[in-house]
Automatic annotation (TrEMBL):
Domain Alpha-ketoglutarate-dependent dioxygenase AlkB-like, first and last residues per copy: 581-765
GO BP annotation list: DNA alkylation repair
Signal peptide (UniProt feature, chain positions): none
Name the record gives this protein: Alpha-ketoglutarate-dependent dioxygenase AlkB-like domain-containing protein
Top-level lineage group: Eukaryota
Ranges of biased composition (kind: Basic residues): 48-57
Organism: Xylona heveae (strain CBS 132557 / TC161)
GO molecular function, one term: cytosine C-5 DNA demethylase activity
Coiled-coil residue spans: none
Amino acid sequence: MVGTDPNVRAKWWERKRVGHTWKNPKLVPNIAEYIQSASHDTSNFVRRGSRNRKRPTRLGDGSDGVRPDSETVMSLDSSLEQNHVVSCTDDSSMNSSETANVAVAEPSNANGGGKVKRRKRAKIDVTFEKSDSANDLSSPAELQATIDEEIPSDSPIDSVAHEDASTGTVDVASKQEGKPEPHGMPEVWAEGRQALCESVPYYRSYQSGAYVHDDIAYGVLLDKQCGRRDYMDDEIVIARAGGCLRKNKEGDMEATDDHRIDNAAIRSFISNQRRHVPVVLIVGSLNPNCPTKLPHRYCVLGHFQVTGVWCEKIQKRKCYKFRFEKIDLASKSWWSPKSSANPPLHREYGPIAPRRTCQSCQAVYSQMYQQGWMCLNDTCQAFFKIDGTEPEGNLAYTEAFLNERTEWPKQIKPPYELQTSVLSEDDNDPMVSYSRHAWKGFVCPRCGRCNSRIRWHEWKCATSDCGFVQHVRHTVISPKMAATPFDIPYNGQPPTQVVKEDWVTEKFTFLDNYRVQIYTLPGGSTITNFLANTYVNIQAGGPDEMFEKLQSVEMGLRRFPLASHGLTGEAVTQHFSVNFGMDYKYVVDVDSKSFQEAPQLITDAVNRLTWAGAYVVNDESFMNFNELLAIGYFEGQKISYHDDGESTLGPTIATLSLGGSAVMRIRMKGVYYHLPPRPKYNPSAPVLRGAKAYEERVALNLEHGTIEEEEWNKKVDEMYECHQKSRATNPPNLLTMTLRHGDIVVMHGAELQKYFEHSVIPEGRLRFALTCRHVKPELIAEDRRWKGEFVRQPYNGDEGDPPIEN
């Protein structure tokens, strides 16, 4: 019987992991028994008879690890959901007297896996230990690609709710008052969330407290929000699993639902414990349970191990918690108070707290609370009761429970160092210098600060009195080396690579060596793509030469601070940029350089793009471009959906693509695609072709005023009822184009930036985009207008006919 035989359960577990469906919820395997059957030592807390409602637990995606020993784990049931990304909310940061919230996010579609049902969560306590050595171990691969590739534009979770929405500033001083000074200083630290996530391999979660992947937890951030009975001292951390929380009217966090064992984060912690995988703990300065004042906003504590996972009740809700122990018990923790004693030379390992067997379910547990022993099997009728009665008031952990230590196997080293090395300067390896790894941050080898890479040609520590700088001399590569294996050079007019909706009309023509594709969007705005061939690109001063000069000329490319974000500390754009000519502000405030101080290739690009823009507009209304924004993309960088609809701009925007190819996608903005909220439905508002319920909306708008108002409103209600059941998150793409080296795209139309938005995803190793606009001089300060002036050298697009080969 699966429900009773541990060996059968173990076999069932493995069969379940390869995709079998379990029908009977009463026969779901118990994690603790599964661990026992795998010959793991379970010495602290074991719970039997646990019930899982669907699949067995497989630990999440990669940031918080738990290795439950047979008795260290309070029987954890878990449902296996492939590709779950589990996060421990920053608010629930796992701190000493605090519980860390581990939230489960739906799996990324990019990693495969279909629709995943949301499950209730449960609360968990875990303990970590710091390891003695962090050498000779490989760091984890790039995980959570969607998080690595771009900074989230918003932060909807509680972990950052306490921060200023525009600047990311926080009130740190109030959380540090009255605490003693720490014994030492952290080996690795950060003042901003982005810098932290870009610099270390064990924590890349911008909006969550735990970083997990494929059943392994890598790092946990313990910050502001802590649960009841969360705890932190020199060597022990107890924290709450995330999720199932919301703010009440008083602004306090309260539980809204039960945690469940199938929570991906919970599964991941169990997996770390079972597999002896350490977790790196990071503490934030807003953590009230940290025993000492923190010198920085985020401080890395060290390597810890998971020694306990159990379920308890908080606010009448089931809540899972984790217990972590520092692995390196021989050295004094840097965050311990200065006046504290050194760690003992000799340790006793194993359970100390008294243990009892539940008379109802026969599960064995240690006594964790001073108030008395309780069964922690959440399926047992005696669950979380002392002598048959649920405890009242605050519970306190016993000294014996907190003093238990688990010996870390000496032969197991942590998989990575806390302080990662800076990418070495290599003049002869373009495969590295423009790679995804190259534009990530670094941990300063002098002061330990995490830094984002800000400048194109160097890594520089942001600490004012540090002075560490490492220059990078990029190897100049050809357009062919920057391209993907699928980019084909064309000697004649190139074919198109485009996907469009039927209501996007298409025309094409040939202009010398260009194929010109003209797409008309709903509303009449146009997007024109000039497809260049090899002969266009190889001309003197042409795209090939421009691309090579952009790599060698120092023109000030850098990642600029974002004006608005939801992260702590400074947040910068993903790409590198520099602006020339008239002042232009897109998502960041960029101080523009004048065209007089620009390299010639920049003014040559303005001339080339002016020719293309004038060709598209084809009348006297065209206004010469007086601004150019140069953007550089390393491998893996991109720009998500946005518009260029600033009030200071003219209706025409032109972009020259250089280097690797990219995919440009255009879609309707959500506010115009989706139905507006029912009370705001306006029959006079324009409805664009391609919008949701387009035909119904047009018909209803025409009927308005011709039939009774009550009848008309009834029809509108029926339309809403029909279409809101299947409300899509994002509007579909209307037009998808591949942009190659030398191609020019011209977007024209006053309404284009109002109704539509676009994204650009580079596919090659290195790409530059040179984009020109007309900034209205009358809206710019008179003493700054001179920046957009220069002597123009007209480009006519005619390089002549290519030579005929015999």
